Amino acid sequence: TGDTLAGILRAVQSCIIAVIIAIGYSITIIMLEGYFPTIEPPVFEQWQRWLFEGLSSIIGTIGFALIFKISLKKLPIVAIGGLITYIFYACVIYLAPGNELLATFAASIFMALYSEICARVFRAPTVVFLFPCAIPIVPGGALYRSMYNLLQGNTPEFLRNISITGQVILGIALGLSVATVLWGIISFIIHKITEK
100-122 vs 75-95: helix axis angle to the nearest 10? Predict the structure, then answer.
């Protein structure tokens, strides 16, 4: 329980830092608005976007794994978990566009079960795998756009983006809760089978 509590505190600390960075970045953008020309983002085809986002999820997962001081031999396992978590999310968004709650719910269930299995196989706390694998579905972009639109005074866009942020957070919480119950049932069944 000590490792779990320490992991939760580090996750809360990371979220607070993310909010501070988003607010600081938004203030900087507002202060420098008009000083730099607007650059149009490149237009990607769907497969290019998925490839870019998949690679980004691997890099982000590894980056947070390094911040949490996860051993180098566990990095490939964590990176695969982050990629598959993103794939679950992307597939649900593709099949049900705009349904952030369902997408993060499905991805969170996978992520939690994957982390539980890895924790047993590699004899490490579940949070070692869980937190880095969650990075691809953390609502950083929506949180940034929420803060930016709040500071700009654009209330409709702020409300839209804060709603997306809330849906993602709720999806993650519900997914982790369901996965915890599922893992308890699976563990009970495995224990009963091996007991005989």
Answer: 160
